[in-house]
Design goal:
Elements (H helix, E strand, L loop, with lengths): L1 E4 L13 H10 L5 H14 L6 E5 L5 H8 L4 E6 L2 H10 L5 E5 L13
Parallel strand pairs: 1-2, 2-3, 3-4
């Protein structure tokens, strides 16, 4: 199993996205965003061959990266996201794909034994 650990600290209450968060997501999805230009190539280099592998993504955000690697051949993506609203967005983004999202913190999430 490949494990991806990315952290972004959200200060969220249980409510809809704030204007600041909306603009973050809009900026994050740009092709030239730092996440796409810097983070993605490094993560691809670090995880190596992920084809037909299960991926655990701690701090998955809106699961854009997870959706991308599933489209490129990963077997299954498990995302863990601490923000309830981001987890809801992730579930929507992952609809129809072979993946699951858990609204939990990376410190308290426990991977089921059968997946280890």
């Amino acid at each position: 199993m490949h494990i991806i650990r990315r952290c972004f600290v959200w200060n969220l209450e249980e409510r809809a996205l704030t204007t600041k968060q909306f603009f973050y997501l809009k900026r994050r999805s740009r092709q030239d965003s730092p996440n796409n230009a810097i983070e993605a190539p490094i993560i691809y280099e670090l995880i190596g061959d992920f084809h037909d592998k299960n991926i655990l993504d701690l701090g998955c955000g809106d699961v854009s990266f997870g959706k991308e690697i599933l489209n490129q051949g990963a077997r299954h993506h498990t995302g863990v996201e601490g923000s309830k609203q981001m987890a809801v967005n992730a579930e929507t983004n992952l609809f129809g794909k072979n993946g699951t999202i858990h609204n939990d913190t990376m410190e308290s999430y426990t991977l089921p034994n059968e997946q280890i």
